[in-house]
Specification:
Length: 65
């Protein structure tokens, strides 16, 4: 199962120039949630960075990068 959010419809603060952009991608596997969140976009739609959340069940990999 997976979910996608466009145009920052989930109202994450600080995300700029998000019109027409996939701002959050979430996937679910074995009861765990994995999320990629765009931090912002420039005026041309290029991502200015992203935050990736990995569940704590993965030990040292768990948390945000």
């Amino acid at each position: 199962m997976a979910a996608w959010t466009y145009d920052n419809d989930n109202a994450v603060s600080g995300v700029t120039n998000a019109i027409g952009q996939n701002t959050t991608a979430t996937s679910y596997n074995a009861g765990n949630t994995y999320t990629t969140q765009q931090l912002a976009f420039n005026a041309f739609g290029k991502s200015l960075g992203q935050s990736i959340t990995i569940p704590a069940v993965h030990g040292a990999l768990g948390g945000k990068t």
